[in-house]
Amino acid sequence: MIEIKNVTKKVGNKVILDDITLSVEKGTLVVLIGSSGCGKTTTLKLINKLIKPTSGEIYIDNRPISKENTIELRRKIGYVIQNTGLFPHLTIKENIELIPRLKKEKSVEEIEKTTVELLEMVGLKYEDYIDKYPSELSGGQQQRIGVARAIATGAEIILMDEPFSALDPMTRTSLQDQLFTLQDELKKTIIFVTHDMDEALKIADKICIMDNGKIAQYDTPENILRNPASEFIQNFIGLDRVWNNPEYIKAKDIMIKDPVSAKPSRTIIQGIEIMKTSKVDSLLVTDKENKLQGIVTVKDMKSNINKSTSIEKVMSKELLFVNEDDNLVDILGVMNEHSVGYVPVVSNNRKLEGLITRSSLISVLSEQFLEMEVSVLG
Ligand SMILES: Nc1ncnc2c1ncn2[C@@H]1O[C@H](COP(=O)(O)OP(=O)(O)O)[C@@H](O)[C@H]1O
Ligand SMILES: [Mg+2]
């Protein structure tokens, strides 16, 4: 685990980092994001002891790094930068094996075996690349080697400073996917710097948004999208982003709260009255704990001759519902698959929380788009 505690960095009078506190759990990938000059690279350099904080301390596995031997510390940390930092006069094999050979923890055979595996993991064929020099590889291939090399060191911690920024979009996407797959398997502790929110959303367990030397918000991608902490964050992520990520929109965000419902013991006459006064054509039936029991439509009621019958007898017990945490994609899927115009929303225990109807969906969505348009115009 990496803990940055109350770290301030000044150069002369200029405050570059202003009392930063941040902890990165072991085995997670945290993305540092923010506009140019906000202090991202400085943060990485502090962790790697390339520079010293003006005040505050950084701990790795509870040990203050100021007391650690710098060379030892750097061997525990892999560093990947934009132009890979591969040594131009060494072959790919020599580049990858440099640190492991220096460390002497493994035999040469073991190291070579790892090199083959690593190249395969980053999607490169060993024989094709191993004796080449960095200049003979494309930017994307060099970046893959950079990632392989950082992992080859056996480092538990990997710092990545805009490693994919200079690559074309296709290569970039492919490397993001590769990194995600690698991380899924290896569970390193990674701090990844970028200024691209789409990249952050794709790979991060948590995102730390920085602004002018301060942390503006540190949370999971989902929480940041759903509850931006400030107007700055909102502008940073962009209003349209939430709506471009419908998987982040939950039933509870868009449902009508307090839908019209009735107890099962109500008679048909009473049920019809309730519907009339609330201008609906169906009733959700809930028990005294507000658990959803069924649904009854005007048609169900009218077709029953005995109007003193309880609605429990005529309601349909087989009904569709969604959970309040289901997302918009799921909900639209359910509504389309069963071609229904509405769907009740329940919490765990099947307690009725709300109702989503086609028209409530349309009005919620169009309000959002209206807001977006206004913000674009204004
Ligand atoms: N050694 C230095 N001396 C003076 N200013 C610096 C130094 N290093 C960084 N800065 C300034 O600190 C700010 C943050 O830099 P940096 O961490 O590189 O930002 P980022 O990586 O987020 O773009 C910038 O305004 C930069 O100009
Ligand atoms: Mg930088």
| CATH architecture group name of the largest domain | 3-Layer(aba) Sandwich
Strand content: 15-25%
- List ligands, each type once: adenosine-5'-diphosphate, magnesium ion
Q: Which blocks of ≥5 consecutive residues have pLDDT under 50?
A: none
Provide mean pLDDT, rounded. Answer: 88
Number of domains: 2
Describe the structure.
- With 378 residues, the protein is an alpha/beta fold.
- It has two domains: 2-237, Rossmann fold; 252-363, CBS-domain (Roll), CATH 3.10.580.10.
- It is built from 17 helices and 17 strands.
- The chain has helices at 40-47, 70-75, 92-103, 108-121, 126-129, 139-152, 169-186, 197-203, 221-226, 231-237, 239-244, 251-254, 268-278, 298-302, 311-314, 328-337, 358-377; strands spanning 2-11, 14-24, 29-33, 55-60, 63-64, 77-81, 157-161, 189-194, 206-211, 214-219, 256-257, 261-262, 282-286, 292-297, 322-323, 342-346, 352-357.
- The strands form four sheets. Strands 6-7-8-3-9-10 form a six-stranded mixed sheet, sandwiched between helices. A four-stranded antiparallel sheet has the order 2-1-4-5, with helices on one face. The protein has a four-stranded mixed sheet with strand order 11-17-16-15.
- The longest helix has 20 residues, at 358-377.
- The two termini are 44 Å apart.
- Bound molecules: adenosine-5'-diphosphate and magnesium ion (MG).
- The site of adenosine-5'-diphosphate has 11 residues, from strand 2 and helix 1.
